[in-house]
Amino acid sequence: MQWVATRHILGNVSVRTKLLLVALVPLLTALPILFSLIFYWGLGYYDRLLTFKVSSDLTVAHEYFIHVRERIGQDVSSLGDSYRFVTTVRDDGNANLQRMLAEKQKSLDLDFLNFLDPQGRVIVSSNGKPAELIAESWPVVYSALQGEKATAIDIYSEEQLRQLSDKAAQQAYIELLNTPNAAATKKTAEKSGMVIHSATPVYDDDGKLLGVLEGGMLLNQNLSFVDTINSLVYAEGSLPEGSAGTATLFIDDVRVATNVRLFGNKRALGTRASQIVRDHVLNDGKTWLDRAFVVHDWYISAYEPISDSFGKRVGMLYVGYLEEPFRKAKETAILLLALLFIAIGIGGAYFSLRVARSIYEPLKGMNRTMTAVELGDMDARTGGVQARDELGNLSRHLDELLDTVQQQNAELKSWGNELDQKVVERTAELQQTNKLLVQAQQQLVLAEKLAAIGEITAGVAHEINNPVAVLQGNLDVLRDTLGAAVQPVQGELQLMDQQIYRINTIVTKLLQFASPGEFAGYVETVNIDEVVADSLVLVRHLLNQSRIVVVHKKEATLSVPINRGELQQVLINLCTNAIHAMKDGGKLTIVTSDWEDEKGARGVLIRVEDTGSGIRQEDIAHIFDAFFTTKRQGGTGLGLSISYTLVARYGGTITVRSEPGQGTEFTVRLLA
């Protein structure tokens, strides 16, 4: 109903109003919608792009973190497996072992190296032997005691760090700073340390466990570690001007190693992550990929949890970059896009109004002229329009039309008379064509009858030959058996010979009637496609009965020397077999083409393809055998055998390709 009302309202307004609506409504509705879609999709894609980048940055940082862990594990393992270390443990005293551990600690950039006995007690330490230090409780040490190398992240308490060295405890100590949005806490300082902890078993030459080599690197205030991550992730030029990339390592939610600045060159050690990030990463164990407030500004941030060797989430790895430059770029792009759409809208509206006016004025003039003509003023004219567009042409054509209306009326009357005469002539031609069609149909009926008689005659003739041959053979046996005693019945036997000969003569004539091509030897150069066309005419009555579509593709250019009637007989046999195979209708395709082999011989291929029931694989080897047929009724088994013989007579071949249920294709290969 609403659409009907709208049509009624529009039907009563002027063309000028309609043109203005057509010009302005799409413009003023499409532009805001387009702007909204671009704004929505653009912002969403922009945010996803920033998130994807920080996710990629976190992947790089994670891989480097894993690389450092693996390197430390490899260094400790290599030292524990070295011949020098094993001989020192086995043969030298603890003093030499301690000096060696201190030397390797420095060269491997580790914070401690300990050698433990098979019970997990520390015997020698690179920092001096600790008092009553038992390391067996660490999972990595336990794995090493069981013969497996292991490396993991572990959190050392202040007491455990002091047992390693006072320097380690001092390096781990970080005073907590008040941080906006952080979770409430009573702690005033972070005293525990995050350690990359590695242990490897040490064996003598006989495979006996001598002990365990334990080593580690303290990550608290390890500024080179986070600076290396930052340089890998945020190389120079990877961020726009004004932005800065940062990397941080957390114990719980406390920054223990970071390149985030509080002010100047002072790093934000001791500041804490916001509570929402802490809950998402440490409590829920999920990765944070979003904007987050870091110390005193908003960053596009990525946090992932860090778990220790006990499987507990004990810290976080962070990378991120300042959001402000990207936010300003986004706001600038939105503003420019809005200004661009406004400019396009104003320009488009002005242009649309001008175009609408140029359309309306010629229409107004033509409407005025047609009104005058309807009132009887046959001399009224538009006077033409200067514009060379369709409306200008229409105006000029209207004037020309009014000038020639009377002349065209007279011509129409003359054309009417001529049309009547042509109708009479066409009617006579149609009657003549109908007569020819009736004659053609009669010829087809006659051809069909002759074909049926030919099939019956061939069958009868071939069936008679067998008993006649038996009679002749028995007569010969009878003469040989009777010998001289045959004289009394010699006349009767000769009479029987004459009658058998007469039967043979009749059979020969019947075969000649059924297959006249076998007795014709005249060879001529024929056009293959013409013979195909003639053959299709002869089987058209069968085609019409079976709802079969015929496709004749004429691609052959060569002519072949052959008896035309014999080739036609071959094609009719193939087409008839194809038609019988498509009882429920189908498609008969005949394709002719040229061929040439590597020896220079050439000729024509004729492919006859149907979409019928196909031939069973076990029958394909026998289809060219005489009297072999797959037809339950009406088949003599001679058609393909005779066709094969006729083609072979001229040096050609017939091949077949068929799949049950998918149709059959016969290929006739003739020499040119």
Automatic annotation (TrEMBL):
Transmembrane segments: 20-43, 333-353
InterPro entries: HAMP_dom, HATPase_C_sf, HATPase_dom, His_kinase_dom, HisK_dim/P_dom, HisK_dim/P_sf, sCache_3, Sensor-like_sf
EC number: 2.7.13.3
Coiled-coil region list: 391-450
Membrane disposition: Multi-pass membrane protein
Gene3D superfamilies (alphabetical): 1.10.287.130, 6.10.340.10, Histidine kinase-like ATPase, C-terminal domain (3.30.565.10)
Keywords: Cell membrane, Coiled coil, Kinase, Membrane, Phosphoprotein, Transferase, Transmembrane, Transmembrane helix
CDD domains referenced in this protein's UniProt entry, alphabetically: HisKA (cd00082)
Compartmental location: Cell membrane
Organism superkingdom: Bacteria
Domain Histidine kinase: 459-672
Reactions listed under catalytic activity: ATP + protein L-histidine = ADP + protein N-phospho-L-histidine
Keyword Nuclease among UniProt keywords: no
HAMP domain residues: 357-410
Main subcellular location of this protein, as a coarse class: membrane
Name this protein carries in UniProt: histidine kinase
